[in-house]
Amino acid sequence: MTQREVAERAGVSVDLISKLEQGVKHTALLTSLHKIARALDVDVAVLLAQRERMDRIDVASGQDDDQDGGVLAIRRAIIDLWEDGAPVTVEELTREARYAWSAYWASRVDLLGSMIPSFITAARATARAKPSPLVHAAVSDAYGVAGSVLVQLGHNDLAFLAMERALAAADRSEDQLRRAAVAGWTSWLLMHQTGTLDQARRLALAEADQVEPRLRNARPEQLAVWGGLLLSAGVAAARNDRAAEADDIINLAESAAVRLNGNEREVRIDHDRPFGVPVVIQVAVDASVVTDRAARALELAKRMPPDAALPAAARARHLTDVAAAQTALGRDTQATDTLLEIERQAPDFMRYQAYPRVIVRELLERERRARTPRLRALAVRLNVA
User: Fold this and answer.
1) Residues of the chain with confidence (pLDDT) below 50
2) Are residues 19 and 77 in the same domain?
């Protein structure tokens, strides 16, 4: 197709297609990228910067070994029909689930690549030998954390298979909140696949309707899951270019966060995302960046408490949105400082995530016209120079 044909199919300007293709421009609104991906019949991840490979890394030894860790081992654990794992106790599975989710929220992608295969194998073997709701809950954790990591690494189809199995196991756990929370993760995964943004929004809203609590008598965990589903719907609406709807949904989620009134620190739901006012602010900033409201994003970011109870991965994602807004407004030095802070706080996030690497590429392009201290060294470390 010519540039004009791509632009017409996608509903974007020829100038945008031309600049992206020639490397003059390295970033674009996610809404625009989704339109271009649909026009080209590819996943939106294809249009983003390449991720760091984690195909065959054995973290313990530092050597390539596809038997012990990495994406290939995770794939094998998910698709194997007959595993040779031995059953373990429910207590061991519960400990493993907490450890895995803690590593996920600490953005320890390398560590997860090593531990997920054995977690899946042990959970499945235990479910076959001595099935129970608690064991099925552990199976849902094993598949859920696997799917969550895989989508970050760009393996969307394998991630979707893992999340489908996490949802099926959650149904057998006899825990409605777990089932709703896993559906929220599935909604988030759908946002990374071309042509499924509306499905992501509808899934999150449908699950939110199913578990909507009475605010006056709601337990903290009910508020957390319901609010998290609303945030998923809000993010999907923003990426589908529905800014006003996204703002309304996120404002509703904030009512649940305010109702928690600081009790979010007491809510521990390993399989669900953290929830509270700081998370609502984070998502509101993200929605503003996605819908091309950079100045609004930075104003909202000022509401983030300095001591916000955010996991490392969530904080890194929030700071990346801040850097994107700063870049959009031409505040290149501030954006570079923000990216360096992300690298200091969450080096694995910077190493494996495409989003900050795309911003670095954009800043590098501008650096030809105005020098930005410390940017090139960062670009070299991220292999985007």
Assistant:
1) 49-50, 56-68, 266
2) no
